[in-house]
Amino acid sequence: MKSNKYILFGISAFVIGLTQVAAQTPTDAFMMKQRESCVALIYDMSSFDHYWEGDLLRVNQTIETVTRNTVLPMIAIGLHDKVNLIVATPYVKTKSSEPNGGKFAGAKGFQDIGISLKGELMNKQLGPGKLALLTTVSFSTPMSNYLSDYMPYSLGFGAPEFGARGIVHYQLDKGIYARVTGAHLWRGQTEAERDYYYNNGSYYTALMDVPDAWNYQAVVGSWLWNYTLKVECNYQGLMSTSGDDIRKYNAAQPTNKVEFGQVGLTAQYYPKAAKGLGALVYYSQRVSGKNTAKSNNLGVGLTYQFKI
Amino acid sequence: MNKNITIIFVSICLVLAITSCDDELPTMASFADYTYSSLDQEAGSWTPILQTSADQVAIDAPFDITSDAYIAELTDLKSASANLTDDQRKKVKYWTNNPLIRWNEIALELVAKYNLIPGPNEDDTYTLPNPASPEGPPAFPFAHPPYACRAFAYLSVAQFDGLISAWHYKYMFNRPAPYNVDDAIAPAYEKSSLPSYPSDGAVIAASSREVLSVMFPLEKEYLAAKAEEHLQSLMWAGINVRSDIEAGEFIGQEVAKVALARAAGDGMKKAQAPKAVSDSIKAAAFARFGWQWDNLELPTRPVGLTPLFGKVRMWNVPTVEEVRPIAPPAPGSAEFEENVKELKHYADNMTDEWRAIANFWQDGLGTYTPPGHWNRFAKDFIIKYKQNPIRSARTFAYMNMAIMDAGISCWDTKYYYHYPRPIQTIPGFKTIAGTPNFPSYTSGHSVFSAAGAAVLGYIFPQEAELCNSWAEEAAISRVYGGIHYRFDAVVGTNQGRKVAQYSIERAKNDGAN
User: Is 0.90 topped by the overall pTM?
Assistant: First the structure.
C-alpha cells in the first residue's frame, strides 16, 4: 500500500538545474533518514572560451574566456525516511579574462533558490543488488534582481522553473552501481529591461519565454575502500523543446534553444574517523551542444551530516 | 497519504502557474481599424517632399461608377469579400485601415533582423557587407543606426509623397468607396466618405515594397508576398475595387522611383570609407585637437562605422557645418576629469534603476536601433490620436527626415572631433553596455532621440513634455551604460533639437496646418 502511494507521488515526478553537483542532490539516489540532515558547501569553477552559435563551435575575442564561479550552500533534510527536502542558494560571479575586446563588466549575486523534494518510491533487493526508484519535484526562482538578458555574464535564465524527475538506481551488494534519471523542466518567462527584442521576428514586450527542456543522466560508479569512497562517471544531456538560435556574432539571449551533452567524474570521500564529514570533488566537460558554452566545471566541496 | 496528495496538488499548481504566464507575447501593435480623427480633404494641396507637385505622377480618370467596367469590378469585389476564409479574415484584421503602421513595423523588423555587426574572419580580418553580393557572408546590409535611419526616412518620404498624390486624385475624381455605391457591400473597416480612387492602401503597399526591397535586397520575395497579401486584403475588406488598387500601385511605384533615385545619389555608398581615408580623417583630428578615437575591439576593426555618413545629403539642413557643436573638453582638462569621475561613480555604484535605464534605451545590435524606437513611439501616438494614413505618413516622414539629418550631423561631429570613448581614456574601465565602433562625441542616441522627440512634440503637442523626458533619459542612459561622457549626451541632445528645427520649419509651411 505504501508503495502505491509513492507511485502516485511518482506520476508527477520532478527536478532542478543544479544537475552537475553531487552529494544529496536532487538527481542522486542518496536519502537522508528522518531527522538526519546534511549541509554542503561547494565551490564551483566553470569557464569557457568556445561556444556554440547554433551548431557552430566558435571563439569570440569580445568575451575571451568567461569564468563563472559559484559558491553553493545546500542543505538536505530527512523529513521522513522516504522524503527529503533539499534547498540550495547559489551565489554566482561572472567575468571575462583580460585582455578582451568587449570591456564588459561581469555580474555577481545570488542566483536562484532551489527547493526540491525527493521521495523514495521503492528500494528492495533484486538479485545480487538493490533496486531503488526515486522521484524529485523541484522548484527554483530568482533570489535577486539579476538581469538574465545579459549573456554570457547573466547569473541565470531568470525565470521560475518547475522540474519533475524520475530516478532508477541499481546497486550491487559489492558497491558497484548504475543510475539513470530523466526530467522535464518547465520554465516560465524572464523579464528583460528592454521592451523589444528579436526572436525570429519582433517581440514588443520585456517578457521572454525561456524554453522548457528535457534533462537526462546516466551514471555508473562504485563504492570503494569499505564504503568510504564513492567514484562515479556520468553523462548528462539537456534539450530545450523550443527556442531560437544565437544569431551570427551576436549575444545569446534567454529565448535560445539550448542543448548540450556533458561528461563528468565525481568522487566523494567519507573518512570513518571524521564523524559525519565528507569531501567531494568533481569535474565535467561539455562535449556537444547548441546555443551554449562549451564549458568545463571543476567543483570541490565539504559535506557534513548530522542528527537534528 | 495526505502529504502526498498535497505534494501532487502543489506540483500541478506550480506547473500551471509557470506555464500559464506563457501567454502569447505581442509581436505587433495591438489595434483595430478606427475612425480617423479627420479625412484631411485638402491634403492633395500639401507640399510633397520630393515630388515637384501632387500630380507629378499622372493617372487616368477612373471609369464612371455607372459604367459596365465598374459594375463588373464591383461584382468581383463582392465575390472576393464574401465568404472569407479564416486566414483571409485574419489578414484583413491585421492590415487595418491604417496599414502604414504595419509597413513601419515590417521595416523595424527587417532592421532588427539585419542589425548584426560582421564578425572577424579566421585570419582576424573583417569582411564588409557588399550590396553587389548581398548574400555574403556577411549579409547585406548591416542595418546599423545610420543605415536604419536612412531606410526609415526614404520609406516614409515615399509613402508620404505617394499619399499626397493619392489624396489629390481622390478629391479630384471623387469616386465613392464601393460600399457607398452598393449597400450590399459591408466593409471590414469603419465606413468613411474618403473617395476610393486611387487606393491609399495600394499606394502604401507598393511604395513600401519598392523602397524596402532596395534597402533589404535579400527580402525582396518576403516583401513582395507581404505587398501581395496587403493588396488582396483591400478587396477582401471590401474597400477598394481593382482599378482603385491598380492606380494606387502605379503611384506607389512611381514615387518610390523618385525616392530611390535620391537614395542612390545621397552619398551613402561612400559612407563606409576605405582604411586610407579613415586613417587620414583620424590623423586630421589628431593634428587639430591632439586626441583620436581608436577601436579597441579584438581583433581591431580597421575602420570605424561609416566615417563619411556625415557627408550624406541632408533633407532639411542646408549644410552640416551649421549644426556642428563646439569642441568637447580636452582629455585631462578639469571638465573632462569631472565627467570621468561621474562615469566611475556609476560603474562602481550601479543601481537597479540606472541599469534598467541603460538597458531600456540601449537599442543595440540585433534590435530596431534608436531611430526604430522613435518610430515605435510615433506609431503609438498615431494610433492614440487616430491619425488617417496621410497624417500618419506626414508624422513618420518629418520625424524620420529629422532623425536622419540628426544622424548625419552626429556622424559629422563624431568624425570631425574623433573623440575617444571612456574605455579608451579610463584605464581598466568596464561597461554594462557595448561600446560601439565609432567615436564618442556626440552621443548618437542623444541626437537621434532629441530630434525624434522634437518632431513628435511638434505634431503631438500634448505629448511634447513626455517625449522630451524620454529623449533626456535616452541621452543619460548612455552615461549610465558607461559608453558616453555626460557632455556627449548633453551637447548631443541640444544638437538633435537644433537639427530637428529645420524639419519642423518645413512642416510648418507644407500646407497641412
Answer: yes
Beta strands A197-198 and A207-209 are unpaired
Q: How far apart are CA A20 and CA A152, in angstroms?
A: 19
Q: Which residue has the cell 574601465?
A: B429
A-B C-beta contacts closer than 8 Å: 141
The end-to-end CA distance of chain A, in Å, is 29
Residue A2 has pLDDT above 50, yes or no: no
Tens digit of each residue's pLDDT (9 = 90 or more) over A92-119: 999 999 999 999 999 999 999 999 999 9
Residue closest to B309 by CA, chosen among B270, B281, B278, B271? B271
* Spatial contact of A158 and A147, defined as CB atoms under 8 Å apart: yes
Is B260 near chain A, with CB under 8 Å?
no
Contacts of B12 in chain A (CB under 8 A): 12
Grid coordinates standing for B400?
524620420
**Closest-CA distance of chain B to residue A282, Å:** 31
ipTM of the complex: 0.95
The C-alpha cell that represents B172 in the structure block: 479630384
Give alpha helix (H) positions in B85-186. Answer: 86-95, 100-114, 145-173, 178-181
Q: Per-residue b/e over A5-43, b at no fewer than 16 CB within 10 Å?
A: bbeebbebbbbbbbbbbbbbbbbbbbbbeeebbbbbebe
Whole-angstrom distance, CA of residue A268 vs CA of residue B308: 63
The rounded distance, in Å, linking the Cα atoms of B388 and B97 is 8
Residues in chain A: 308
For A41, B218, B308, B323, the CA distances from B134, given in Å and listed in that order, are: 54, 7, 21, 35
Strand A197-198 and strand A161-172: the pairing is unpaired
Cell of B186: 459591408
**Residues B204-214: tens digit of each pLDDT:** 999 999 999 99
Judged by a CB distance cut-off of 8 A, whether residue B136 touches chain A is no
- Residue located via cell numbers 525616392: B259
Count of all residues that appear for chain B in the document: 513
Residues 100-129 of A with CB under 8 A from B: 100-106, 117, 119
Q: Which residue has the cell 489629390?
A: B168
B336: Cβ–Cβ under 8 A, 6 or more apart, which residues?
A: B329, B330, B425, B485
Helical (H) or strand (E) element with A56: strand A56-58
ω into residue A90 within 30 of 0, thus cis? no
